[in-house]
Amino acid sequence: MSVHPHIKRVIFTDQQIKDRIIEVGKEITNDYKDSKELVLIGVLKGSFMYMADLVRAINLPNTHVSVDFMSISSYGHGTTSSGVVKINMDLKADIAGKDVIVVEDIIDTGLTLQSLLVNLQARNPASLQVSVLLRKKEALKVEVPCKYIGFDIPIVFIVGYGLDFAEKYRELPYLGELKEEAYKN
Ligand code: 5GP
Ligand code: MG
Ligand code: MG
What does the record list as coiled-coil region(s) (predicted)? Predict the structure, then answer.
């Protein structure tokens, strides 16, 4: 596998990511067997690859499974959380009375997810859970309920597999740590 020159090290290969998502998909399949309607809410843009792989790993033939997307901003072009969340694009459909899983790329401080969950809870879903691909456990500033976790990772800045730095590196099929010098260019 060729690695982008701005990547210091690959944290998870595309195969490791796929294998882990199969397991998470099985957990969700198991937990939502009795659900009538399950909505997966992808938080754009970072979650788009995770959403695509996760939804294919869920197998619920008796449930109406749908996907919807929201776009929120927290980081702008920096690498530290502002704690301020702005909704740039809202859901297309109403989630009242439906089972909802928020599909997020990464939790760092937890501030983004916390305010998003307050917003979604106010819309009265039947249930509300979170599936996050990556969690920086030591960086959490607030306690956020997060049921389905791909990987716990150390506090480093990650790009690839949908995650960006200043809109770059989303296309990389693996998750990697960005070289410090790449922040400055
Ligand atoms: P939090 O509010 O939890 O601190 O930040 C969550 C958001 O910050 C994520 O959804 C993501 O957009 C961004 N973020 C946090 N850590 C990283 C990281 O290591 N890499 C990238 N690309 N984005 C991150
Ligand atoms: Mg995100
Ligand atoms: Mg970003």
Answer: none
